[in-house]
Amino acid sequence: MWTSTNELIPYTDVYFRGFDNAYPDTWRLEEFEREFAQFAQPGKDLPNLVLLRFMHDHMGSFSANGGLGGVEGSAEAEQADNDFAVGKTLDLLAHSRFAGNTLVFVIEDDAQDGGDHMDAHRSTAYVVGPYVKQGAVVSTRYSTVNMVRTIEDVLGLEHLNLNTAYQRPMTDAFDITQGPAWTYSATASTILKSSTLNLTLNTPDGQRPVRFAEGPVVTPLHDGAWWVRQTKGFDFSSEDRVPADLFNRVVWEGVKGDQPYPDQRSGTVMRTVVTGEAGQALPAAALK
């Protein structure tokens, strides 16, 4: 059963900014943290289901002077902003009293134009939280419908329709024998060191400052003026209004430079396990 937008308004944070490529995800995170702090008060609890959208992975609305927060000057900075917001959300949850009974499902919203080395319909997804396989890459074929089915089962809900009823839950991402313990601390890309974002989020006492990745400071291949020129005339006001193939080529040239644009899928198996510092497996199962 579909729910209209009007019916969702009473359950929506009206201060959480919607689709706007010129607005940093890190600032969206600040608003979520404000609301999260209310749920964390004694006698309160998180809702059974929270829908949180960080959309800066779409990229766009570039600015020659860096724009709001100083992250609108390149695709690399906008992606780093998106990654940081997602990572800090997990960090916030991991260091809260909700860590042992809350699952997080992360998925890209439009895999149909996220072609990789295998298929144009593939997209990475992540499951984080208690009883999730640690640092595992799960290659079982799942779709967004499988993820919705899994959420239904975890919450004890009836199936939305026949689509979820006939799909299996993502059981290969879980290991109920390992227990509910997990933790996560976010690491920011060094490209954000030059931003004007508030990178001390979730540390009201200043005791847990943001960690930046090791190594040299990342600098984008092109400046904001280049990105503005290359995307002149593009409509970034909403999702999927830009010429997809042309934008893909702009992003490739902007990030990869003179390397040839890939126009053939290789089918190469690129299965790897992601590990954190000192070889510690990250508390998530990555689905590919």
Describe the structure.
It is built from seven helices and six strands. By secondary structure, the protein is of the alpha/beta class. The strands form two sheets. Strands 1-2-6-3 form a four-stranded mixed beta sheet, with no helix packed on it.
Oligomer: single chain
Number of domains: 1
Order of helices and strands: HHHEEEHHEEHHE
Low-confidence stretches: 273-281
Strand content: 5-15%
Let me know the number of strands. 6
Give the strand order, joined by hyphens, for the main sheet. 1-2-6-3
> Radius of gyration in whole Å, from Cα?
20 Å
What integer is the average pLDDT? 85
What is the rounded distance between the termini?
Answer: 29 Å
What's the number of helices?
A: 7
**Shape assignment:** globular
The major β-sheet equals: 4 strands, mixed
* Helix coverage percent: 25-40%
Based on secondary structure, the structural category is alpha/beta
